[in-house]
Amino acid sequence: MLILTRSVGKTIRIGDDIEIVILRINGNQVRVGVSAPPHITVHRDEVYQRIQANQNCPS
């Protein structure tokens, strides 16, 4: 795992197409903006886990 330290307004790039911007830090919460192409899905982990559980659940 790569660990980075960024301050408000700073950007992290992943490849050519994904940009992560630190928008606000409030105590132990960080507001992050993510710009990615439409074919890349971006979810919070708890949402991703729920989607995965629903896809693996027999109908």
TrEMBL record:
<keyword id="KW-0810">Translation regulation</keyword>
<dbReference type="Pfam" id="PF02599">
    <property type="entry name" value="CsrA"/>
</dbReference>
<protein>
    <recommendedName>
        <fullName>Translational regulator CsrA</fullName>
    </recommendedName>
</protein>
<dbReference type="GO" id="GO:0045948">
    <property type="term" value="P:positive regulation of translational initiation"/>
</dbReference>
<keyword id="KW-0678">Repressor</keyword>
<dbReference type="GO" id="GO:0048027">
    <property type="term" value="F:mRNA 5'-UTR binding"/>
</dbReference>
<dbReference type="GO" id="GO:0045947">
    <property type="term" value="P:negative regulation of translational initiation"/>
</dbReference>
<comment type="similarity">
    <text>Belongs to the CsrA/RsmA family.</text>
</comment>
<keyword id="KW-0694">RNA-binding</keyword>
<dbReference type="GO" id="GO:0006402">
    <property type="term" value="P:mRNA catabolic process"/>
</dbReference>
<keyword id="KW-0010">Activator</keyword>
<dbReference type="InterPro" id="IPR003751">
    <property type="entry name" value="CsrA"/>
</dbReference>
<dbReference type="InterPro" id="IPR036107">
    <property type="entry name" value="CsrA_sf"/>
</dbReference>
<dbReference type="GO" id="GO:0006109">
    <property type="term" value="P:regulation of carbohydrate metabolic process"/>
</dbReference>
<comment type="function">
    <text>A key translational regulator that binds mRNA to regulate translation initiation and/or mRNA stability. Mediates global changes in gene expression, shifting from rapid growth to stress survival by linking envelope stress, the stringent response and the catabolite repression systems. Usually binds in the 5'-UTR; binding at or near the Shine-Dalgarno sequence prevents ribosome-binding, repressing translation, binding elsewhere in the 5'-UTR can activate translation and/or stabilize the mRNA. Its function is antagonized by small RNA(s).</text>
</comment>
<keyword id="KW-0963">Cytoplasm</keyword>
<comment type="subunit">
    <text>Homodimer; the beta-strands of each monomer intercalate to form a hydrophobic core, while the alpha-helices form wings that extend away from the core.</text>
</comment>
<dbReference type="GO" id="GO:0005829">
    <property type="term" value="C:cytosol"/>
</dbReference>
